[in-house]
Specification:
The protein is α+β, with helices and mostly antiparallel strands and about 160 residues long. It has five helices and four strands. The strands form two sheets. It has a two-stranded antiparallel sheet with strand order 1-2. Strands 3-4 form a two-stranded antiparallel sheet. Strand 1 and strand 2 form a beta hairpin. Helix 3 crosses helix 4. The protein is elongated and about 55 Å long.
Length: about 160
């Protein structure tokens, strides 16, 4: 087999190389298969290109629901509880960065002084929420945050 199923769980900006790392998680049972498909350990001296495709809900093999639980893709890591927390943490950490604060001020409110509190207010207003805890995966607030933060990352890469 030349493919394996994984859960997209996070991404991380690597500023020094101007790239983004995408984190995919596989179950322990699928780790050997993923390792074989990827060709073993990465070699830092050469690049190994791979293709990534999103599985539509109907195409993923689904395990039966556990008692009191819900059905989910076999081998998927349970990110139902961690994904919202990661998104909220990403917003909080970004708001604390002076460079992000400056960019948000220039982008959303150039006539204000800026700072942490003003950045947090601008983000909540932009996302249409009263609290960062309302910026949840799959919501319009999360889509707005993602668009805004992606613009910031793109801007920061060329700085």
């Amino acid at each position: 087999m030349t493919a394996f199923r994984a859960t997209y769980s996070d991404w991380k900006l690597i500023r020094t190389r101007k790239v983004v790392q995408i984190v995919l998680e596989v179950s322990v049972e699928q780790a050997d298969q993923a390792y074989r498909v990827l060709g073993g350990m990465p070699n830092s001296g050469e690049e190994t290109w791979v293709g990534v495709a999103r599985l539509e809900d109907g195409n993923a093999e689904v395990a039966p629901a556990s008692p009191g639980g819900t059905a989910r893709a076999k081998g998927a890591v349970d990110v139902v509880t961690t994904a919202p927390k990661r998104l909220i943490q990403q917003v909080a950490m970004a708001c604390k960065q002076p460079k992000f604060q400056t960019w948000v001020k220039e982008c959303l409110d150039p006539n204000h002084e800026g700072g942490l509190v003003r950045t947090e207010v601008l983000i909540r207003e932009y996302c249409g929420v009263k609290s960062r805890s309302e910026i949840l995966p799959g919501t319009e607030a999360a889509r707005r945050w993602d668009r805004l933060y992606s613009r910031y990352v793109a801007w920061d890469l060329v700085e």
